[in-house]
Amino acid sequence: MIHEPLTLFCYADLSGQVRGKGFPTRLLDKRLKSGIGWTPTNLMFTALGTIAPSPWGPHGDLTLMPDPATKVEVDFEDGAPAERFFLCDVTQTDGSPWDCCPRTALKTAVEDLRRETGIVLRTTFEHEFVYSGAETRPGDMYGLGAIRRHGAFGETFLAALHAAGLEVDSYLPEFGSGQFEVTLPPVEALAACDQAVILKEIARATAHRLGHRVTFAPRVTPDGLGSGVHIHFSLWTEDGEPISFDPERPFGVSDKAGSFLAGVIRHMPALCAFTAPTAISYLRLKPKTWTGVWSNLGYHDREAGIRICPVFGPHKKTARQFNFEYRAADATANPYLQLATIIQAGLSGLRDGLATPQPTSGVDPETLDEAERNARGIRRLPSSADEALAALEADTAAGSFLTPALTEAYLANKRAELDLTREWSPEELCNRYAAVY
Ligand code: GLU
Ligand code: MG
Prior knowledge:
Layout: E1 6-12, E2 18-24, H1 28-34, E3 36-38, E4 62-66, E5 72-74, E6 83-92, H2 102-117, E7 119-131, H3 144-149, H4 153-163, E8 170-173, E9 179-183, E10 187-188, H5 189-209, E11 214-215, E12 229-237, H6 255-266, H7 268-275, H8 281-284, E13 297-299, E14 306-308, H9 318-321, E15 324-326, H10 335-351, H11 370-375, H12 385-394, H13 404-421, H14 426-436
Parallel strand pairs: 1-6, 13-14
Antiparallel strand pairs: 1-2, 3-4, 4-6, 5-6, 7-9, 7-10, 7-11, 7-12, 8-9, 12-15, 14-15
Helix pairs in contact: 2-10, 4-5, 6-10, 7-10, 7-12
The protein binds glutamic acid and magnesium ion (MG).
Residues 128, 225-228, 284, 290-291, 302 line the site of glutamic acid.
């Protein structure tokens, strides 16, 4: 059959959905310069197939401008069309920044942090997902047999990630039925977000070619376990020296990292509106599920809002490995906005010279009395998307982490999506979101 290679220019929208427009690949050189047309109201698509009230209505035009560094071309050599796409900034038609572009919001946060403090973040997004083609059985967690019985998926996925230019750190069968996890090595913030988007699309593309699907939804059933997105980060100088670790200080948390973390923790309830933004996010964020329901810094604790992660191997490597993990996050969010708002919150902590939060170690914040929690700045994170959006509205500083237009559009979009879900049972939430993510 004849075929014309097709390339798509795309972006991750407010729900993390990847959307864009295509053209014949032979016109790529021209398109790399000109981009492709886009419409402001497209930002108001919800993940559930509706359009939230749009401040732009039918008016205006924009451009999807590709970043050549994000080129993905993966031929699975199965005779089916290759995956060919680029990730884009959404710009004005003259190429100047659009104040509602999520990727631009991240670039702004990265640049604010660098300019004001000389600090560069290194990040990786750890993803869990469920593969429909896995032949599952009880007791499969971390099982060698689980890898064997999920067939060609794992190796094809890893090969496709490699072909897309992504290095893989680890791949494993997770705790849930048919659940797997993939982690990439840390890189600078923008590349980490681009990779998070590419990784999920490549997982979907791989499953599709095998006649199955993957879902990154935070829950596939109301009971059992969820799929999280754990956002790892560490602080570095512009010259590439690690600055998160200080062996002289409690738990090794440097003064600078402590201020950054204190800023994140101060704004964490509001940040949940960006990191865990949907109704189904709160089916996952429950106590005793290895997620993160408190705004605590926890030493080697998988139920901390932010975990101080372990390091492995010789001590001289400690400073380069030392990192923190934000756990109250999932894949119904936009990764650029997740990280942009975490960076802005951390930067606010650095600006204010906040003291390092007192970490918890071997203790569930639930068991501390309220006075003790207050003394450590530990608050219960929102337990619903409504609470998360209200926390964002109540936190005026967090309300200015993004441009006013983007914050306003974001809130309108999330409200509209949340309103659609109000009558849905937990089962229906799971089914609907598993279909979309
Ligand atoms: N599946 C858990 C979550 O929803 C995390 C398990 C783990 O620590 O890797 O975040
Ligand atoms: Mg995991």
